[in-house]
UniProtKB/TrEMBL annotation, chains A, B:
The gene is ade. GO terms for molecular function: adenine deaminase activity. Residues 75-360 form the Amidohydrolase-related domain. PANTHER family: ADENINE DEAMINASE (PTHR11113:SF2), N-ACETYLGLUCOSAMINE-6-PHOSPHATE DEACETYLASE (PTHR11113). This is Adenine deaminase. It comes from the Bacteria. The keyword Hydrolase applies.
Amino acid sequence: MKIQPKNKKQLLKAALGEIPCDLVITNVQLVNVITGEIYPADIFVYDGFIAHVEYQNVGSQLDTAREVVDGQGRYLIPGLIDAHEHIESSMMTPRNFAKGVIPHGTTTVVTDPHEIANVCGLEGVRYMHQAGDDLPMRQLIDIPSCVPAVPGLENAGAEFFAAEVEELSGLDRVIGLAEVMDFLAVIHGEDRMMSIIDVMDKKGLYLQGHAPYVSGRMLSAYLCGGPNTCHETRDRKEALEKLRSGMFVDARDSSITKNVQEVYEGVKGVRFFDHLCLCTDDREADDILHVGHMNDVVRSAIRCGMDPVTAIKSATLNTAREIHLENLGAIAPGYVADLLLVDDLTELKPSHVFFGGKLVARDGKLTVEIPHREYPLEKVNTMCVKELSREDFVIHAPVENGTVTVHVMEYPDLNLSSTLLTTAQLPVKNGEVCLEGEDLKFVAVVNRHKGHDTIGLGIVKGFGTTCGALASTVSHDSHNLTIVYDTPENALLAANALIRCGGGMSAVKDGSLLHVLELPLAGLISLKEAKDLAEDSQKMKEANRALGLTGMENPLLRIVTLALPVIPNIKMSDLGMVDVLKKEFIPMFAE
Amino acid sequence: MKIQPKNKKQLLKAALGEIPCDLVITNVQLVNVITGEIYPADIFVYDGFIAHVEYQNVGSQLDTAREVVDGQGRYLIPGLIDAHEHIESSMMTPRNFAKGVIPHGTTTVVTDPHEIANVCGLEGVRYMHQAGDDLPMRQLIDIPSCVPAVPGLENAGAEFFAAEVEELSGLDRVIGLAEVMDFLAVIHGEDRMMSIIDVMDKKGLYLQGHAPYVSGRMLSAYLCGGPNTCHETRDRKEALEKLRSGMFVDARDSSITKNVQEVYEGVKGVRFFDHLCLCTDDREADDILHVGHMNDVVRSAIRCGMDPVTAIKSATLNTAREIHLENLGAIAPGYVADLLLVDDLTELKPSHVFFGGKLVARDGKLTVEIPHREYPLEKVNTMCVKELSREDFVIHAPVENGTVTVHVMEYPDLNLSSTLLTTAQLPVKNGEVCLEGEDLKFVAVVNRHKGHDTIGLGIVKGFGTTCGALASTVSHDSHNLTIVYDTPENALLAANALIRCGGGMSAVKDGSLLHVLELPLAGLISLKEAKDLAEDSQKMKEANRALGLTGMENPLLRIVTLALPVIPNIKMSDLGMVDVLKKEFIPMFAE
């Protein structure tokens, strides 16, 4: 697929020097990710495209351009491409997200709007598409493939079949099918998934994968099924196996999960890195603002020992190939003029960001206005929850008093979202299961979508909080209201705070509300800009820490994958405790 | 674009080991062109696809396959892909061509049927497509873009506009637009060419280029115009510039033009070779039989100093990317099972050739039958030439006796097809221009297509023959009857020999016919198999040498680019002498 110029004949004339170019960037060290070389050059831009590159920056006809930017010997690299991410995870609208990431040099994101799709269905995807229009960056859309993540194991706010996917594939900036998380459905050739994949194959769109810990014959089957990318690679052996198997390995450094180092350790011995890409997956506003976006991921790869040009290629040309875009991700005639000037190739803080040949950020600040726009969906309260009571959060035992053995979802590591199944013996008082010890907590997943009023209850170990109730409507991927709590009273308080404001995150300790992070759009997204949202998010993190979540870099997102039944081995849903690999429910009480 | 399995669900089961695979190739050193590694592995194949790769060749469940081939420690490499070629140049039918190249390990060719298209139009392309069906190799078709090569400068047997290209794009194995030779039409945005390119862009098919000696702003404009590959790169500076500019450089070793060494010398200093591919362009039967096909081109790259894995990647994965085929050119689950076993990575003589998982050649011999088929076009005599006389081959001077200054097409090098414009003073006797010296010859290009009876006459220098007449209906791309001769009498004899037999090549010396190589199908193709054709072709080469063509490796094809008005600077056509870059005719007599 190619991004086409508005008027190719004019572009040809500009290339030939017959009409003036819009811009020439002179005196740069061009980082050529196609050849791996760095050399002096002048770059001529017309109508958003690179019209010509003059080597050796001598003798260029600078008078053939309307504007000259002196690169002052800086490196010129292609604009960075995020191979996989969810804008919703920034908790910002597409427009506010753009304001946040452009100054860091991210000019293209491949975004999967499946968070909002799980809440608002087709309307949610159409909103993300529409709100991403006319921006000084490229927000490409992969169509959510798994809404809900695993049918039958949870109730989300929408359900997508081949017909919905086909309908969405007509949107302008749709480029592929988003992370096919239900990897078992692919591996076992389930009809619904096969028909969705078939729709995309017929349109020649690419299939983004998601295959955590999948290896051996299972991995082979997944690849034969179609999806051939994965951003869920966590250990080095897995990384090497996937790369060797022809998968595009999208090494991820999100706000919660940092995989770049392990992936690089796994693959650093190979000779060709063509199938290695980089992505952020989920980065929240505070992180974007203060740490960075794709430039931070590239930086991280370089710190791990990756050669800078290879790392930059992994965030540009390799990704463009992965997503089948022919003229993006490199600096050459006919390519889109998304360009960054950087002082050095390890820090990657762009002094200039050009999108489609236009200067859009300078020294960390936007230089173009992104006009405010309002959309109807931003005004809708999506919290459809019946009136809750203390009783909804109580686990009733089959005995009045004594002990019971319960199944427990245990986190072995504070920094991983994967879990194990264990059991615990717990006391029962007046028919209610009670907790013992700081490490165990109750969990409730309260369906918040129209037409459902299910609540799944369970016990979690090693989550990290030591007291109080932590609630969130950001809870991948169904985004049901998820609460980790010590007492039903605290749970009720935390839940009601979110129902009132249209969703978000809340923390309660000893009967008082510590903080509410309001996310009124779909219960996922704030309408605030990065700076204000980051402040709000910092307060929320403090509240999280006050509940004991101190053992991780970013406590905000600890809760958001608790109810994601595609991450092995055990997850919660509004229907109960789920064995992810067996696709079965686990009863509350053990034998 | 992906090559799809017939039954994906069954392939998934085979990958999982739930049903037996068709084949397992054990005990091989897998050459992984994606990572650049070589390691021991077993490869499981089902229904033409790689279902699974087991590393370390230990513990593979060999009982899950119906057939086991012991690789005996040999290297397993992907089947070779020819990035650009014309089957017509082998002078064999698609089916006989397949018999010739498969034993050398060429499993896929990207073929441009523009020779036959120039003679027989749409019917010619349909014939090549149909005759390439059901073969144990993949003959992908690029649609001829320039029929005739340069409109207005010659008359061919057909004319293709956007409508013809659109019609042909519906054929099954069409993958792109073939070499866009009329590079000036691209660079200057001529309507006809833009509309042809537009048809292909809309279908997402790739655009094969052709840009000899094009550099600087002209090259930039060509790339902005769309085509982004080139197999016409002859010198090292040109090779580096093209690679840096994002072009796929298809380094060519044809039967006449060997560019691989120069291209490699140009680019050997870069770090990434992703955009370097290899091709044969034009290889005739004798050459294919006794020297090789793509394996010979890869071998040549390795002899120049290219690392073998990179060279193999250039003839497999890189090419698959160039032509937008996602699951071809590597050995990984989900990829097409085109595989070669080779004893060593420098000679590349395959002991086993697997096409779609089926053994199709063993130790240089086909192991499958390619049934003979006949097609109506094979019976048609395409020579439409009026009755010729001596007079048709005489250049008449404006004076009765004395001297005239004529324009001359001069070949500066016996091994290059490019030419220069010079002049010569020649004697005139009885109103007829006469030759002086062995180095000058007459040239006639006699239109042989229905509706035209034009004959272009001129003088050539440095062609290489010292006496006699050499005639050919293989004469790119219009394939008009082209004759280089000393006397009108010899020319007439050589021409008539070809008109009688439906076309081919002939040599006449001192009034006697030395040999006729008959090519009755479109005047381009023999109906003989490689072995018989090679013998015939050897006799023709002897005849060529008898006319003085001794200074080159392969004299057979010296004449075939004499009338190709896209190779700078001067060429002949049936309309006269052509200035290629100016797209103008040059008058016979100089001022």
